[in-house]
Every structure is written in structure tokens, then in C-alpha cells.
């Protein structure tokens, strides 16, 4: 074994490791530095611009755009949002009214004048694509079946009545009834009891799902219950269906049976029916079905544990019939109940096969009666002898509507797997806007926006039968009874059909919906901007879905974990589909109205950059139509990036920081050593990293489409046409893979790629079954050989390597992949971009403490520099050590501080001056202890006269209510005398602590802003020997004034906002210049 490893290492060491020069944008380091200091307009951040609940005005949108231009916003995406009137009172400018059209025209024309690009959400609301112009026949639909039982011989002639309106016929099938149906438990007159007193528990077995039985109280944390079922005679069970009641309930369920006085476990599973919204499944109260080997007893019980919600069900169906396990979930009728599905949420273990063929439907015996159905719904058929089931299949609308939007803009969602109505949808909203506004006034209108997908699933569309057959090569018609849980052929075949259906839906959502939006947008001179994931009922595959968009976006919330999968989902899709810019809906939030400010946003924003984001979008600017209301219209979500927020204009310093970061992070290409294959199962909103990468290395997710169509191998690396390359491909721990993708992976390995992961055992698809499995097994034997991951873990195939059963570190060692940045502290995060003129590393301290680190960068022979995006400064890092593989640099970072290490390519030998410090400790040359004259804004209820502060203090500690409750800007002024200025030094004004932002002038010259650690500004060019005037403009948040006004009678209040969480008991926010203020020299 050691000899084999040594041989492989030697082979790999001989491979050319130089990056492909064609893959990196040829940009000189001088032009990069110039762009960093004078950031181009092309990297201005974007903004969601919400028009809330008809509260808009011509003058308001004009001022909104002007305000955006002042702080450096480059794009504004208009969303017509309607919210419950209890939260956002409705205004008078109704959607599509004459005044609304005037406002829209003004907004776009003003943006054109101010050179701000405009995007339009493609329909009212933020999710997704619909409106009152969408007919039921153009909407999202699912396949439903109305069934009847008949016994032949019989001449059947009867009108089949569709059970619901808008039923669109698809097919009529008949098949022999299977055995086991008569063995449903309710036919055995069981006795049922519950330990926690379900209300009327016999309703659980009455075959009426309208009769619920539940406990009246919400289950307490950790609560358990036992439901006991007893029958007089023995009963054979093969399946259990739990029909949910109308009240949300979740529990761990254990089904047991009694054998000779001992209860034995049949099945353990999770039951979750906590969300009945139709955007997490078009069958709101779909049963949860599980299957198992036949068990015979007269005593059964359900053990419920980890319960939440109201314990109860509409029906418990313990049956001797064979059912497809989780058939409702497998057809997307019921989906993951919360926003963030796990990578394997739509994967299920192989189901046990029923032991008796009489329990199964033979696909060869299914009769297509579609032509026997008359236009009026009458079916005529000579029924053969025996018991038969007739099912009339048709499409029904899922009923999901776009939103949240004003009533005038709400309607059905457009079909996501058929683009036939896409042009109609576009013409009905965005197209009308283009028609109504002259081209000369709307040159700024460039983008069509699709926010995160939140409109759930569908599983059928017009022409689905031939579409399916064209995709997979077999007729899906005989397999339709699987959708009602029946087993057709075998359980394995039935489940494979459902896999094919889910995969087809995922692909068509990408190619019919997203690509359809793109096509109609391009035809009309627009591009699309898309978030490539969905928090409610997402039916597609995040990589392929994003790959069809012009620009891809993630999302992250300022607090919590939302964003932890979305940002990497976006950056991975962008990287593998050749898109350089990666957006993110940034600083989305809930609650804490007006309490957030840039210093508190920076940590999460920096985190997003390390996930691959480089084209930030701020959430959210809510249009402000009422000049006499302050802080004005808001909502219970988002960070208030609008012109009426106190710190909005000073927030330009934060916007400039984001611009500089975005600029550098758009240079070159990202360096990610590992590609994690996400597998082929669908839906999928994230991948899996197993084994996980150690700190100091980065990755992308990659999908089958990119591997099949875009991947080649060069110098042992997986290479994509746009320049991305990866040294290791990791397969998920799955047993399935289609033979086509396995064949391509084998070809990549043969050309020199190294793959880590297990060999697949079978195809997940019914396509070419069972020949596809035979083909796959032959390829596995050829590629993996005897590499079983146990006895043998390393093997060769062509020029490449197969690794199975080894750790990630072992794989990295074998490939001689060292950390890109060796970081001992896991709270320091990084990202790396490579250009032809140098390497750009971004580092962020994610802690609230200052730290000293010595990261080892996987770079040698280059000169390191420190580039600070807070002020745009660049300087050399004189102290560093270089080895044959790395450059080690001592770095100090303040709390939440970040910065760029730029390794500039040079023909000269790097100059090391280890006697110097990279981050020298400043020396204080002057403590500012003189009194400060402070002018508050009287319009914001500040003191009427300037106030002298002998000592700096937190405003909330003042005895003066006009200061204690003040929100807004205050200007501090003082003078100081400098007796001498040492030559060759850089001088800084350090403001100590400021809440929340400060803009600084020295001797009348504006020198910068202090808004984040280390809260100091370079004043070298403004400071002079002798007397100096210091002016500091400080701004806080709205919080303290809102608290202060809450203590006043309503008539005396000067603030107004529709969502106001503040009361007299709310805690005030520290505010003002708190200091100490010093002048420092370095």
C-alpha cells in the first residue's frame, strides 16, 4: 500500500500546476489598484426598492432615486408589494391606476437621468410569476384522479363527474383491483384508545377524513403518547397511512405489534404535517404513508414522541394493501415543511417489496380508456369479468398565487414546467410598462427580477405524456396509478417512475420557467436577475436553475442562519456556469425596526464575501411618499436602507466599503480546490460536503449537467470552459447514479482526474430498466475495479485515481494539496481570487475581539500588500516569511475587521523587512480633552441651543430629555493645538467609540468616516502644526426618539411609522461620540 501511494504522489507531482492563463482576466495590478481607490460605477451595489401597499407618490420616487444616486447605488429593483393592512396601511395609489402609471414613469425616467439601472420584479409581489391575467389552464397544475370501482362483466355507461372545478382531462385508465384492500383495519371493528385522551378516538378508524380526533391542548415539549389498537381476530398489515387533521402536528412515530406478549418495532419514522400552505404541497392534508414487511397480530400501537402542535389525526389507516412509501412526497404533493430542506430531503431508502404479486398492478393489464370518454364526461366500456378500478385523470390548478401584492395584482402563478404562457405573462405586466413609457425615458430599464422561489410544486402540464416519453423513452401512462400510492410492477419500478417524474419537473422548471423568462426578456431588451433557490416547496435543482439566468443571486439575513446555504448555492452556480458576478440579497432581517446600522451589518456582509458573493444588493429601500411622516413607511422585515433613516446619507461610507470589496472580488477567478458533486436526485436546494474540507480550503458544488457538457481534464484538474478548475471531485455517499453520468465521470478519471467517493450500485431511473443497471455495474467494475473502500481504498483508472474510504485529509495529502490559507482560528474566514497580475485574498475577523494571526498563504515569490476597503488605502506588508510553498504574514485584526492581502506579481525578488511591523501600534501624540460644542438638530427635537460637553458621553446618560431621546445628526466641534508634527509619519484621528457613525473634518477639510473598528481616519493631509479645528458629525438611529415619543401623548409625537415596536420600557441605544478622541501617529 505505501508503495502505491508513493507512486501516485510522484505521478501527480509531475503534473503541470500552473493555472490556465486563458482562464484569468488579464488586468494589470496598477489598474486594479486604481479601480480600488476610484471605484468604477460598474460595481455600485443594487437595492431592492419596495413600493409598499400602494404607498407611493411622484415626488417620493423622484427623491428616492436622487437619494440612491447620492450614496452610490447603481441598480434599483422595483417590487410592488402588498402587505396585510394591519401591518402596512394601504395608500391611495392603486396598482395600475392612472396615478400608479405616472409614478412608474417618473421613477424610471428619474433613474435614467441619474444613471441608475432599473429592474422590475416580473410580477406584483416578490414571489414569483403570476397575476390576474393567468387563467387556470395557464397556471401551475397537478395530476389528480377520480376513481370508481366496478365489477364485470358489465356494460358500463356512466357520466364521470369531475370532483373539482377547472378539471382538465388527461387520461382514463382501468386495471384489475388488487388484493389486500379488504384488509384495511377499519373492517375488523378495532378498539382504539389513547393515553392522552384523544377526543373521540374511534373517529381515527371511521374511514372519514373529515372526522378528526385530536388532543385539545398543544403538546408540551418532550410529550409522548401511545395509541393502542386491538382487534378480535389477527390482522395482517403491510402499510400505514396517517391522514392529518387541520391542526399542525409533528412527532416521531414508532409503529409496533404484539408478538407473544412482547411489543416489537415495525417501523420508526418522522411525521410532519405542520404546514398546510399550498406552496409546500398541492395536497395540503396529504397522508404520510409508510410500508413494511407483512406483520400479523391482533394488537398494534403507535408510540408518539417529540411531539409539537396539536396531537391528532383525521384517520389512521393500517392496511394489508401494498402502498408506495411516502408516495405523496415523492410526487411533490407534500414537500419539506420549513424553509431549508436538507440535501437529502428528497431521497428515500429502498422500499421493501410486497411478498405477493396479487398485491401489485401488472402494467401490462392496465387498459387505456381515454378514447372511450365522451366530451360530456360519459365513459362507455365493456367491463371484463372481475373487480376493476377506473381512474379518470385530469389536471387541477394548485391554486398558488403570486404575492405578497396588492389585491389588484394577485392571481394564479404561471405554469413553471411549460413556457407556453410566458410571453402572455410578460406582456401583461412588464411589457405594458415598456409600452407605456417612451424608450428615451426608460433606457435605465434593464433587468427582470425573480426573487427566491416560494410558490411550491406542480407535477403536470399540457402535453406531459409525450414530453415524459421523449425524455425517458418509455410511456408513463401505465405508471399513473403510482400517484395514488399503488404499486405498479414492483415497488422498485414504481419508485423509479416517481424519481423520473421529479427529475423531469426539476429540469423543466429550469429550462421552461427560468430559461423561458430569460428568452422573453432578451427578446424585449432585458436581462434576468434570479435567486436560485426557494424557501417554500422548491421543486428544481439549484445549480441548473441558476445556470439559466443572466445573473445569479443568493441571500442572507443579518441575524440567524438564513443564507448559510443560499449564498454558496448562488456562487457555485455562477462559477460552474461561467458567470463572474454573484449577487446576494443582503441584510434581510426581521424585527428590530430601525435598530440596525452599518457596524452591526459588516460582520455578516464580510461573511457573504467568503461564500463567493461579489455583487451586493441591499435589502431594503422602502419608498417614502409622505414628507411629513418620519421615519415613515416601513415593514416588519428588512434593514431600513431608505432616505428617511437617520444614517442613510452617512451610510455612503458603508456603501463605498461594499463597492471596494465587490470590485476586488470581481477580479480574476475564484480559487476553489474541490468540487462536490450534488448527485442527480431532485428537488435539491443544496449539496453535501462529506467528507468535509478542513479550514483553509474552499469548494464549489457541481451538477451532472456541467460535468456532462462543460467539463474536461487538463493537468489532472477538472477544467471548465470559463477557467474554473478543481483538483478533486468528491461524490456524495449515494447508491444511485445514471449510467450516462457515470460514463462521463469515468472518462474524466481516465484523462487524469482524481475522484473521491463510492461506486454507485444502480440507476435511480426507470429509463432502460433493467439494462441500465447492468450497464452501470459493468462500468463500475471497469472504473473502480476492486476499490471497495474497505480492503482497498486507492486505485488507478487510466491517468486518474479512484479514492474510496479514505479521509479528506488523506486525499489532500495524496494530491499534495496544502491549505490555501492555513488558519488556526476558525473564526477568521477567507476567500481567494487569482488574476494574471497577482493573488487577492480577503480575510475577515468574525469575532468581537482584536486578534493577532500568522496565516500561511499558498503563495510564494510575490510581494504582499495590505489593501483596506474601509478607506481605500494600500500599503506594503514588510514583515513576512517565505517557504518553498507558502508566505507567512503576521496580521492584526480589530473586532470584525477585514482586509485584503494582495500578492503583486513582480519580476523583482520580494522585499522582506522583518525588523518592521506590519501593523505597528500607533503612538498617541494628542489626547483631545478640550470641551466640545455640540449642535443638535432642532427639527429632530434636539436642544434649541448648542450644548457644551466638557466630557464626552453617551447621549442616553444625559439628564436632558432632548439629548437622551434624540435621534439624528449632531455636530461636535473643538480645537486642539499641535506643537510639532514628526516627519515621515501618518497621522490618524481615533474617535474611540462612536454610536453609530461619524463623518470627520479637520480644519474644514473632510477626511473620512469612522463607522467600524478601528474607528480612526487618516488626517495626514489636513492636520497642521499649531491650532486645528476638529468637526465630527455624529449620527445615531431612530430608536431613542421612537422610545421618547412613546412616552408622550399621541398628539405631541413627531414620529410616525406603521410598524413601531418601541414602548416606554424599551431599552435605549447607546448614542453619540463617546470617545476617547486622540490623534495618533504611525
Produce the secondary structure layout.
Layout: H1 2-13, H2 29-37, E1 46-52, H3 58-71, E2 75-81, H4 98-114, E3 117-121, E4 141-159, E5 168-176, E6 191-194, E7 213-218, E8 225-243, E9 249-259, E10 262-273, E11 288-313, E12 315-319, H5 327-330, E13 367-368, E14 378-397, H6 422-428, H7 430-436, E15 445-450, H8 464-472, H9 491-523, E16 527-531, H10 542-547, E17 551-557, H11 566-576, E18 582-588, H12 598-610, E19 615-622, E20 631-632, H13 652-665, E21 669-670, E22 674-677, E23 699-702, H14 704-709, E24 712-714, E25 717-719, E26 725-726, E27 728-730, H15 739-750, E28 754-756, H16 771-783, E29 794-797, E30 800-803, H17 808-814, E31 821-822, E32 828-835, E33 838-845, E34 851-853, E35 856-857, E36 863-868, E37 873-876, E38 881-882, E39 887-888, E40 891-893, E41 898-904, E42 923-927, E43 932-936, E44 947-949, H18 961-964, E45 969-978, E46 987-990, E47 993-995, E48 997-1002, E49 1005-1010, E50 1016-1018, E51 1026-1035, H19 1039-1046, E52 1056-1057, E53 1072-1075, E54 1078-1081
Parallel strand pairs: 1-2, 1-19, 2-3, 3-15, 15-16, 16-17, 17-18, 18-19, 20-52, 22-23, 22-27, 27-28, 28-30
Antiparallel strand pairs: 4-14, 5-13, 5-14, 6-8, 7-11, 8-11, 8-12, 9-10, 9-11, 21-32, 24-25, 25-26, 29-30, 31-35, 32-33, 33-41, 34-40, 35-39, 36-37, 36-41, 38-39, 42-54, 43-44, 43-45, 45-51, 46-50, 46-54, 47-53, 48-49, 48-51
Amino acid at each position: 500500500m505505501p508503495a502505491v501511494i508513493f507512486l501516485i504522489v510522484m505521478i501527480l507531482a509531475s503534473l503541470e500546476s500552473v493555472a490556465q492563463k486563458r482562464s484569468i482576466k488579464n488586468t494589470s495590478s496598477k489598474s486594479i489598484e486604481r479601480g480600488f481607490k476610484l471605484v468604477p460605477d460598474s460595481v455600485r451595489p443594487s437595492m431592492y426598492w419596495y413600493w409598499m401597499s400602494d404607498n407611493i407618490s411622484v415626488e417620493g420616487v423622484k427623491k428616492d432615486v436622487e437619494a440612491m444616486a447620492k450614496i452610490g447605488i447603481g441598480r434599483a429593483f422595483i417590487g410592488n408589494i402588498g402587505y396585510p393592512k394591519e401591518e402596512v396601511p394601504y395608500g391611495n395609489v392603486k396598482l395600475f391606476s392612472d396615478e400608479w402609471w405616472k409614478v412608474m414613469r417618473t421613477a424610471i425616467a428619474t433613474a435614467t437621468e441619474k444613471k441608475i439601472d432599473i429592474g422590475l420584479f416580473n410580477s406584483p409581489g416578490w414571489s414569483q410569476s403570476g397575476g390576474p391575467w393567468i387563467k387556470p389552464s395557464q397556471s401551475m397544475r397537478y395530476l389528480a384522479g377520480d376513481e370508481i370501482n366496478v365489477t364485470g362483466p358489465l356494460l358500463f355507461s356512466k357520466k364521470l363527474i369531475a370532483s373539482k372545478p377547472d378539471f382538465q382531462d388527461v387520461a382514463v385508465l382501468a386495471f384489475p383491483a388488487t388484493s389486500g384492500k379488504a384488509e384495511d383495519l377499519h373492517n375488523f371493528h378495532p378498539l382504539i384508545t389513547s393515553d392522552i385522551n384523544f377526543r373521540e378516538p374511534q373517529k381515527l378508524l371511521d374511514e372519514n377524513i373529515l372526522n378528526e380526533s385530536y388532543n385539545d391542548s398543544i403538546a408540551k415539549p418532550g410529550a409522548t403518547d401511545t395509541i393502542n389498537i386491538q382487534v378480535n381476530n389477527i390482522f395482517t398489515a403491510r402499510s400505514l397511512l396517517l391522514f392529518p387533521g387541520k391542526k399542525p402536528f409533528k412527532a416521531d412515530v414508532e409503529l409496533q405489534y404484539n408478538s407473544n406478549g412482547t411489543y416489537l418495532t415495525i417501523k420508526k419514522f418522522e411525521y410532519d404535517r405542520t404546514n398546510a400552505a399550498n406552496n409546500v404541497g398541492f395536497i395540503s392534508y396529504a397522508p404520510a404513508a409508510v410500508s413494511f414487511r407483512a406483520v400479523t397480530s391482533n394488537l398494534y400501537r403507535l408510540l408518539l414522541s417529540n411531539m409539537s402542535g396539536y396531537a391528532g389525526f383525521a384517520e389512521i389507516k393500517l392496511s394489508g394493501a401494498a402502498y408506495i412509501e411516502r408516495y405523496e412526497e415523492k410526487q411533490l404533493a407534500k414537500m419539506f415543511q420549513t424553509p431549508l430542506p436538507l440535501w437529502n430531503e428528497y431521497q428515500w431508502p429502498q422500499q421493501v417489496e410486497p411478498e405477493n404479486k396479487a398485491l401489485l398492478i401488472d402494467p401490462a393489464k392496465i387498459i387505456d380508456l381515454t378514447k372511450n370518454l365522451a366530451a360530456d364526461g360519459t365513459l362507455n366500456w365493456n367491463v371484463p369479468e372481475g373487480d376493476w378500478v377506473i381512474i379518470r385523470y385530469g389536471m387541477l390548478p394548485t391554486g398558488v398565487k403570486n404575492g405578497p401584492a396588492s389585491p389588484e395584482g394577485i392571481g394564479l402563478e404561471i405554469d413553471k414546467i411549460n413556457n407556453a404562457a410566458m410571453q402572455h405573462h410578460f406582456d401583461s405586466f412588464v411589457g405594458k410598462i415598456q409600452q407605456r413609457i417612451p424608450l428615451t425615458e426608460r433606457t435605465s430599464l434593464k433587468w427582470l427580477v425573480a426573487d427566491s422561489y416560494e410558490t411550491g410544486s406542480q407535477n403536470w402540464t399540457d402535453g406531459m405524456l409525450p414530453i415524459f416519453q421523449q425524455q425517458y423513452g418509455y410511456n408513463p401512462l401505465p405508471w399513473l396509478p403510482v400517484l395514488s400510492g399503488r404499486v405498479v410492477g414492483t415497488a422498485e419500478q414504481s419508485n423509479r417512475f416517481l424519481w423520473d417524474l421529479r427529475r423531469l419537473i426539476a429540469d423543466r422548471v429550469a429550462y421552461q420557467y427560468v430559461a423561458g423568462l430569460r428568452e422573453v426578456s432578451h427578446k424585449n431588451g432585458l436581462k434576468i436577475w434570479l435567486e436560485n433557490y426557494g424557501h417554500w416547496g422548491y421543486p428544481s435543482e439549484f445549480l441548473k436553475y441558476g445556470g439559466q439566468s443572466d445573473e445569479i443571486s443568493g441571500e442572507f439575513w443579518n441575524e440567524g442562519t438564513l443564507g448559510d446555504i443560499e449564498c454558496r448555492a448562488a456562487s457555485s452556480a455562477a462559477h460552474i456556469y461561467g458567470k463572474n458576478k454573484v449577487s446576494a440579497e443582503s441584510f434581510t432581517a426581521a424585527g428590530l425596526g430601525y435598530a440596525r446600522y452599518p457596524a452591526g451589518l459588516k460582520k455578516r456582509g464580510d461573511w457573504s464575501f467568503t461564500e463567493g458573493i461579489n455583487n451586493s444588493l441591499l435589502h431594503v429601500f422602502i419608498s417614502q411618499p409622505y414628507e411629513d411622516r418620519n421615519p415613515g413607511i416601513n415593514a416588519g422585515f428588512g434593514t431600513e436602507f431608505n432616505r428617511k433613516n437617520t444614517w442613510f446619507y452617512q451610510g455612503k461610507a458603508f456603501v463605498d466599503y461594499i463597492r471596494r470589496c465587490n470590485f476586488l472580488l470581481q477580479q480574476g477567478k475564484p480559487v476553489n480546490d474541490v468540487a462536490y458533486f450534488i448527485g442527480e436526485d431532485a428537488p435539491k436546494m443544496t449539496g453535501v460536503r462529506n467528507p468535509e474540507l478542513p479550514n483553509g480550503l474552499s469548494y464549489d458544488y457541481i451538477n451532472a449537467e456541467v460535468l456532462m457538457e462543460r467539463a474536461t481534464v487538463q493537468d489532472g484538474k477538472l477544467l471548465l470552459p470559463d477557467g474554473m478548475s478543481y483538483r478533486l471531485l468528491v461524490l456524495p455517499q449515494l447508491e444511485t447514479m445514471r449510467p450516462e453520468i457515470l460514463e462521463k465521470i469515468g472518462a474524466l478519471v481516465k484523462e487524469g482526474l482524481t475522484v473521491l467517493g463510492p461506486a454507485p450500485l444502480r440507476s435511480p431511473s426507470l429509463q432502460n430498466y433493467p439494462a441500465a443497471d447492468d450497464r452501470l455495474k459493468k462500468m463500475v467494475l471497469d472504473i473502480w475495479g476492486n476499490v471497495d473502500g474497505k480492503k482497498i481504498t486507492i486505485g488507478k483508472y487510466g491517468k486518474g485515481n479512484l479514492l474510496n474510504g479514505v479521509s479528506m485529509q488523506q486525499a489532500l495529502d495524496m494530491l499534495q494539496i496544502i491549505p490555501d490559507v492555513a488558519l488556526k482560528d476558525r473564526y477568521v474566514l477567507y476567500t481567494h481570487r487569482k488574476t494574471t497580475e497577482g493573488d487577492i485574498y480577503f480575510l475577515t475577523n468574525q469575532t468581537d475581539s482584536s486578534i493577532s494571526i500568522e496565516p500561511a498563504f499558498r503563495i510564494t515569490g510575490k510581494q504582499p500588500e495590505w489593501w483596506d476597503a474601509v478607506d481605500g488605502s494600500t500599503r506594503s506588508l514588510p514583515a513576512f516569511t517565505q517557504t518553498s510553498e507558502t508566505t507567512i504574514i503576521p496580521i492584526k485584526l480589530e473586532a470584525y475587521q477585514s482586509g485584503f492581502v494582495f500578492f503583486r506579481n513582480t519580476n523583482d525578488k520580494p522585499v522582506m523587512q522583518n525588523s518592521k511591523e506590519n501593523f505597528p501600534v500607533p503612538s498617541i501624540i494628542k489626547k483631545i480633552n478640550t470641551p466640545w460644542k455640540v449642535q443638535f438638530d432642532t427639527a429632530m427635537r434636539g436642544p434649541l441651543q448648542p450644548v457644551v460637553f466638557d466630557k464626552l458621553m453617551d447621549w442616553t446618560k444625559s439628564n436632558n430629555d432632548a439629548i437622551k431621546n434624540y435621534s439624528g445628526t449632531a455636530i461636535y466641534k473643538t480645537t486642539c493645538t499641535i506643537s510639532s508634527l514628526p516627519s515621515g509619519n501618518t497621522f490618524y484621528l481615533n474617535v474611540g467609540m462612536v454610536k453609530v457613525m461619524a463623518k470627520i473634518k479637520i480644519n474644514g477639510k473632510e477626511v473620512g468616516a469612522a463607522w467600524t473598528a478601528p474607528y480612526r481616519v487618516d488626517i495626514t493631509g489636513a492636520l497642521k502644526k499649531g491650532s486645528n479645528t476638529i468637526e465630527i458629525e455624529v449620527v445615531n438611529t431612530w430608536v431613542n426618539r421612537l422610545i421618547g415619543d412613546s412616552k408622550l401623548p399621541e398628539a405631541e409625537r413627531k414620529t410616525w411609522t406603521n410598524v413601531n415596536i418601541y414602548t416606554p420600557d424599551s431599552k435605549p441605544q447607546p448614542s453619540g461620540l463617546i470617545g476617547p478622541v486622540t490623534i495618533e501617529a504611525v
